[in-house]
Design a protein that fits this description.
Helix content: 40-55%
Radius of gyration: 19 Å
Keywords: NAD, Oxidoreductase, Signal, Tricarboxylic acid cycle
Bound molecules: 1,4-dihydronicotinamide adenine dinucleotide, oxaloacetate ion
InterPro entries: L-lactate/malate_DH, Lactate/malate_DH_C, Lactate/malate_DH_N, Lactate_DH/Glyco_Ohase_4_C, Malate_DH_AS, Malate_DH_type1, NAD(P)-bd_dom_sf
Distance between the termini: 39 Å
Family: Belongs to the LDH/MDH superfamily. MDH type 1 family.
Strand content: 15-25%
Subunit structure: Homodimer.
Number of helices: 11
Order of helices and strands: HEHEHEHEHEHEHEEHHHEEEH
Strand order of the largest sheet: 3-2-1-4-5-6
GO molecular function: L-malate dehydrogenase (NAD+) activity; mRNA binding
């Protein structure tokens, strides 16, 4: 589950073997305080479980408008080296206490899609939820790295940025749209075609987090099977772009991806903490405040980034594209620009 980088660290699942004797020395190395907002939901619960298994987390705060205390009490019986506490709005200052002094805040709060909906259809409800939470983060945890999962990510990330700007505490290096699910889907789906180990496959996925704004750069893949046809390649691109719909359809009204998203969110949070801990070459993809297309009015863009002690350390160029990928990028930019403006205007 841990990110691929040079320094070898214990994995989250190996936490289970490190419960008693070694737990304190491990805790001393990486004492991170992490809050999950929306922790009792479909993503929130398994995400919180995976964070409970991560040694880097010593203080886990679970906030939700309902059932956070139940989830926290349940997780608190797992013998890893973190404390877990639940917070709901019936407690005075719940959000303040959940957020105070945190290093990382993950936001999976909000409604998921039903069949026939786009992520943008979630805007009306989720924009309000995310902006309210962002105001509280600005007030109580302006130092935290903020990882936005709630959809539509292309708009919710600009909403958080705008709220923090209003409060005078926006730090572009510490705001992330979590697009890891696109990357892990790409690894999985390409490995099925190449018949390889998916954990060894990495696809450079850029753009945003919805349909045509998700661009897997397959032309940069080495060792694609020579026999792959254009139809197969187009189908693979489509599957990566619309993998979310595949789950929404299969769940048939019961929501969208939760378990694969929890895995993706935990993996991303682990990378953020590795960066804060000054580990070397922590490279992930994320939708961040980016200079890449700023001159075209597109303030946020997903690409590979290197994480460090201050958050984003380096934003990588996306590299060479094929003519078809350049065409995809042009279409992506049109949609992305509108999605970002919609988020910004919501706060204005
Ligand atoms: N970035 C990505 O790749 C992905 C994003 N998502 C998005 O994540 C979001 C959550 O999805 P699920 O967990 O499946 O939904 P869910 O409905 O199961 O859980 C959402 C949770 O948020 C809570 N909540 C609502 N308003 C809140 C508030 N103001 N403060 C704190 N908590 C609040 C609810 O009580 C609920 O427990 C959705 O917007 C979904 O579209 C889902 C999958 C992938
Ligand atoms: O499809 C959705 O609505 C949830 C999501 O973002 C994904 O699974 O990529």
């Amino acid at each position: 589950l841990t990110t691929t980088h040079t320094q070898s660290k214990p994995t989250m699942l190996s936490a289970l073997r490190l419960t008693s004797k070694r737990s304190f020395s491990v805790a001393a190395v990486n004492p991170y305080k992490v809050a999950v907002l929306g922790a009792a939901g479909g993503i929130g619960q398994p995400l919180s479980l995976l964070l409970k298994l991560n040694h880097k987390v010593t203080d886990l705060r679970l906030y939700d408008i309902k059932n956070a205390k139940g989830v926290a009490t349940d997780l608190s019986h797992i013998p890893t080296n973190s404390t877990v506490k639940g917070y709901t709005p019936d407690q005075p200052d719940a959000l303040r206490d959940a957020l105070k002094d945190t290093d990382v805040v993950l936001i999976p709060a909000g409604v998921p899609r039903k069949p026939g909906m786009t992520r943008d259809d979630l805007f009306n409800i989720n924009a309000g939820i995310v902006s309210g939470l962002a105001q509280n983060i600005g007030e109580f945890a302006p130092q935290a790295a903020i990882c936005v999962i709630s959809n539509p990510v292309n708009s919710t990330v600009p909403i958080v940025a705008q709220e923090l700007k209003k409060l005078g505490c926006y730090n572009p290096k510490k705001l992330f749209g979590v697009t890891t699910l696109d990357s892990i889907r790409a690894s999985r789906f390409i490995s099925e075609i190449k018949e390889t180990d998916p954990t060894k496959e990495a696809v450079n996925v850029i753009g945003g987090h919805s349909g045509i704004t998700i661009i897997p750069i397959l032309s940069q893949q080495k060792e694609m099977p020579k026999t792959i046809t254009k139809e197969q390649k187009d189908a693979l691109i489509h599957r990566i772009q619309f993998g979310g719909d595949e789950v929404v359809k299969a769940k048939d009204g019961a929501g969208s991806a939760t378990l694969s998203m929890a895995f993706a969110g935990a993996k991303f949070a682990d990378a953020v903490m590795s960066g804060l801990n000054n580990e070397k070459d922590v490279i992930v993809s994320s939708f961040v405040d980016s200079p890449i297309f700023k001159d075209q009015g597109i303030d946020f863009f997903a690409s590979k980034i290197t994480l460090g002690p201050q958050g984003v350390q380096k934003i990588h160029e996306y590299g060479q594209l094929s003519p078809e990928e350049n065409e995809m990028l042009e279409k992506c930019k049109e949609t992305l620009k509108k999605n970002i403006e919609k988020g910004v205007n919501f706060v204005k």
